[in-house]
Amino acid sequence: MAISYLCIDDEEPAPLNALLDRLRRQSGNLEILLERPLAFDSEVDRIERSPVDGIILDLRLDEVPLASGDRIGYRAGSLAQELRTRMTEGRLRPFPIVLWSIDSKLRESYWNDETTHDLFDKIYYKSQVVKSANLVAVELEALAKGFQEIGALVQAKKSLVSILGLSNAEAASLDPRIGEPMRESRRTPVHEYSRYIKKELIDNPGPLVSDELLAARLGISREDSEDWLPLCKLLAEFSAYKGPFCQAWKRWWWFRIESWWDSFSNRPDHFAKPLRQRELIACGDLVAL
User: Fold this and answer.
1) Domains in the chain, CATH or no CATH each
2) DSSP letter (8 states) at residue 9
3) Distance of alpha carbon 246 from alpha carbon 200, whole angstroms
């Protein structure tokens, strides 16, 4: 099933479509429609009527005049805030809001204004699309699918633990502070679940760890060790994160890996220091050597 994004940008369409074509070519499932911005109320109405799975906004929507000669009187942050408010009120279906712009504008107008940072699910420099179109396309798909997955589970009144793919018993292995914002609110909107999962759990190491951190804790070189990929295949059977956004952001449940490690009687005592590869091998048949 295709994933559709609406891209709203006031720059000339030819170079923008060249950028978007890079993304479209990377995935047979990604559709992106480019539109110039409308006046604020008209823009919100257009988005409400559009059956899209996500929005891509240029940071500065107020630089190029409309055909009438008038200028748009708002920027991406103002539009994103209105969309998030309507999502919270249930007047607008939940979907990811992505910000993109040229490098200088993000440095000058975005990074210094922290008030809008939680409104966007991902920020891209347009130069990233040129250099890493495949990665950006995979992430855009994962963001849209993640929102859809979270939305269905929230509607079914599932807890954060269930949304993450954990059992209630496994939740006892997590820091009890994880998920506090959801427990304190009677009705948490989908985009707040999304923000929490992506920014607090996936982007920040804690119960979930990246390939890089996993390798560092195990003391294995991802580039030089022949055992890295077989080990990942083994660990994936029981410790891979399979919740929202996993298609683009590969993570591991560290408490499951610790439990697995503790099951070996001849293991080193703990992960206080990086494990040498020979210590892994010494535990016996951990990977197919």
Assistant:
1) 3-149 (3.40.50.2300), 155-202 (no CATH), 208-282 (no CATH)
2) -
3) 14
- The stretches of 173-239 forming alpha helices (DSSP H) are 180-184, 190-195, 211-218, 228-239
DSSP H helical segments within 37-179, as ranges?
40-49, 76-89, 103-105, 126-131, 133-155, 160-163, 168-171
Instruction: Name residues whose C-beta falls within 8 Å of residue 126's C-beta, 6 or more positions apart in sequence.
Output: 19, 100, 101, 102, 103
Predicted confidence (pLDDT) per residue in 96-150, tens digit: 999 998 766 666 665 566 666 789 999 998 888 889 999 999 999 999 999 999 9
CA distance 239 to 256: 6
**pLDDT confidence tier of residue 160, bands split at 50, 70 and 90:** very high
pTM score of the predicted model:
0.87
